[in-house]
Amino acid sequence: MGHGELRGVVALDGPSGTGKSSAARGLAALLGARYLDTGAMYRAAALAVLRAGVDPHDPVAVTGTARRALLVQSTDPANSTTRLDGVDVGAEIRGPEVTLAVSPVSATAGVRELLVAEQRRIIAEAVEQAGGIVVEGRDIGTVVAPDAPLKVYLTADAEARARRRTKQDNDSGRATTVERTLADVTRRDDYDSTRQVSPLRPAADAVELDTTPLDLAGTLDALLAMVEERGLRHERVTG
């Protein structure tokens, strides 16, 4: 990938089901930028913990397991892959077992320290090589990239988020119901917003965007307008 149209970092934060992943990938693709799914990195760490037979609530064992795991996250928006110990685990990390384990694993201070350092390395490399990167997660604007020139916090009402996640899961072959997904969304909201380390919350200077009434095209239009307003877009140069 050569230099794209995006200058610097766009930080997209928000809870599950707000359309964050689709919007981040789509925005990166439109601007020829890199894309980083930090949530996939925490899910891969949770999978490593489950494979090791470690209690997700044991911070010492969880941190040790995460440090030993070889985790590689790609930054190509057209082919975002997550590899754990050399194997693509993109489908496995979306399963129900990992979904239950990811909140306590991601709340572990040692895991966050480890992965935040790696995320910052990836971001710096992407900006140097491609000019810009769109990063999605729950603490990008507050912790990972607090100096990002554009921070957006996506929101949506809980039922809309549950419907979106249910459709996404069912389309991917992970059968579920809106009721089950709503319970999971609510549980994760509570866990992520009350954890001591990097709680889910908008950065003080983040722009809040309610995606409840928006489809993907509408969300991308709003994000592109923000990029333009901040002067973060330049003429694309391929090479």
Automatic annotation (TrEMBL):
Q: Where in the cell is it found?
A: Cytoplasm
| Predominant subcellular localization, coarse grouping | cytoplasm
InterPro entries registered for this protein in UniProt: Cytidylate_kin (IPR003136), Cytidylate_kinase_dom (IPR011994), P-loop_NTPase (IPR027417)
Q: EC number(s) for this protein?
A: 2.7.4.25
The entry's ATP-binding residues are: G14, P15, S16, G17, T18, G19, K20, S21, S22
Spell out the GO cellular component terms annotated for this protein, sorted alphabetically and separated by semicolons: cytoplasm
Q: Which domain of life is it from?
A: Bacteria
Q: Which family does it belong to?
A: Belongs to the cytidylate kinase family. Type 1 subfamily.
Q: Which HAMAP family match?
A: Cytidyl_kinase_type1
| Keyword annotations | ATP-binding, Cytoplasm, Kinase, Nucleotide-binding, Transferase
A molecular function annotated in GO for this UniProt entry is: CMP kinase activity
The alphabetized list of GO BP terms reads: pyrimidine nucleotide metabolic process
**Reactions catalysed:** dCMP + ATP = dCDP + ADP; CMP + ATP = CDP + ADP
Q: Does the keyword Ion transport apply?
A: no
Pfam family, any one: Cytidylate_kin
Q: Where is the Cytidylate kinase domain?
A: 10-228
What's the protein here called? Cytidylate kinase
